[in-house]
Write a structure and sequence with these properties.
The model has no long low-confidence stretch (mean pLDDT 93). The chain has helices spanning 20-30, 52-59, 79-84, 100-109, 155-165, 184-190, 199-202, 207-219; strands at residues 7-10, 35-40, 66-71, 89-93, 113-118, 136-140, 172-176, 194-197. It has a single domain, classed as Aldolase class I (TIM Barrel, Alpha-Beta Barrel). It contains 8 helices and 8 strands; from the N terminus they run βαβαβαβαββαβαβαα. Helix content is 32%, strand content 19%. The protein is α/β, with parallel strands linked by helices. Helix 6 packs across helix 8.
Length: 221
């Protein structure tokens, strides 16, 4: 089922990390829908970012849902901990979870929305047997590991194909990587329900105005 309006999920990796508490408070006031945290371990991807204590420390400063994208090896070991620190949505990569159906089932059992993240080089055929265990699919429109990368336009066709395959289900499509005011309408038109926005939001000082611009641009046409 397509969301009535696109959801805007600020990517906290692009925020001012020196004052993360202030950032989450400001984003809630500005009208963000969900806060997206890229969790990287320096092994599955070549970078290290947020850990569990960081999420736990800022959780009490906002009522917005926390969306954790696990770009980590052996993700199954940490599912309970991400639930404990207050995550509401959790996505994992098929490459990091050898028993992906069991992983998704466990995420739901812990009270979180379960997502599968697919890299630009990951075949969407791997989703055929697990869609019914997902609440959302995260389509990476850059290669994961670093913020500020350019959008890969070929991923729009991937979203369109996924949307057809998901017809009749409540599974949502999330997209992350290079999303800006200039391309969010294409992304929305292709079928994306949740836009993860990094520098396309945080490059501006007025978050409220920029979120409004993103929403308006998404719904044009």
């Amino acid at each position: 089922m397509k969301s009535k309006n696109i959801l805007i999920a600020p990517s906290m990796l692009a925020s001012d990390l020196s004052c993360l508490k202030d950032e989450v408070i400001a984003l809630e006031k500005a009208g963000a829908d969900v806060l997206h945290f890229d969790i990287m371990d320096g092994h599955f991807v070549p970078n290290i970012t947020f850990g569990l204590p960081v999420l736990e420390s800022v959780r009490k400063h906002t009522r917005l849902p926390f969306d954790a994208h696990l770009m980590i090896s052996e993700a199954d070991k940490y599912l309970e901990e991400f639930a404990r620190v207050g995550c509401n949505w959790l996505s994992v990569h098929v490459e990091a979870c050898p028993h992906i159906q069991r992983t998704l089932t466990r995420i739901r059992e812990l009270g979180m929305k379960a997502g599968v993240a697919i890299n630009p080089g990951t075949s969407i055929f791997c989703l055929e047997s697990i869609v019914k265990h997902c609440d959302f699919i995260l389509v990476m429109s850059v290669n994961p590991g670093f913020g500020g990368q350019k959008f890969i336009p070929e991923m729009l066709a991937r979203v369109q194909e996924l949307k057809k395959n998901l017809s009749g289900t409540d599974v949502q499509i999330q997209m992350d990587g290079g999303i800006k005011v200039e391309n969010i309408n294409q992304i929305r038109s292709a079928g994306v329900d949740i836009a993860v926005v990094g520098t396309g939001l945080f490059s501006q000082k007025d978050y409220s105005t920029q979120i409004k611009k993103l929403r308006l641009a998404a719904e044009k046409g």
